[in-house]
Design a protein that fits this description.
Layout: H1 30-56, H2 62-76, H3 89-108, H4 111-124
Length: 129
């Protein structure tokens, strides 16, 4: 065979190096960080405290309480009926438990329960100003 007619691959131009400076802990506004963490904590804690108050409420029917506790236990327990590492199907059982929990939450949440939960939330996570 004759000489190759292909041209050599183009040479990559050298990449520009960018120097980065790592911020020290003294340069972080700790007040702002705590404010952000409290706000995030309130957002995450609100539905959990409302569910707790709903389960503890004397006016919540026994079957609703039992189903909510079972769903929460299933979601928090490390073993599943269908392991989570199985694509799509692994989270299907968790979705069923979460759907049951959310449905009961929406249909049985009262203003009294929500008010008690808000008081507890304000006590545990003071409002950020």
């Amino acid at each position: 065979m004759g000489p190759s007619t292909q041209s050599p691959p183009p040479r990559a131009e050298p990449q520009e190096t960018i120097e980065a400076e790592v911020l020290g802990s003294a340069e972080i506004d700790e007040g702002l960080l705590w404010k952000l963490l409290r706000r995030a904590g309130r957002s995450v804690a609100r539905p959990a405290i409302e569910c707790l108050e709903l389960v503890l409420d004397a006016e919540t029917p026994f079957q609703v309480r039992l189903t909510m506790v079972a769903a929460l236990t299933y979601l928090l327990f490390p073993l599943d009926l269908i392991p989570d590492f199985i694509p799509v199907a692994g989270f299907g059982d968790d979705v069923v438990a979460m759907t049951a929990l959310l449905g009961l939450y929406r249909s049985h949440m009262s203003e009294a329960v929500r008010t008690r939960a808000q008081r507890k939330l304000d006590q545990w996570f003071p409002p950020v100003r």
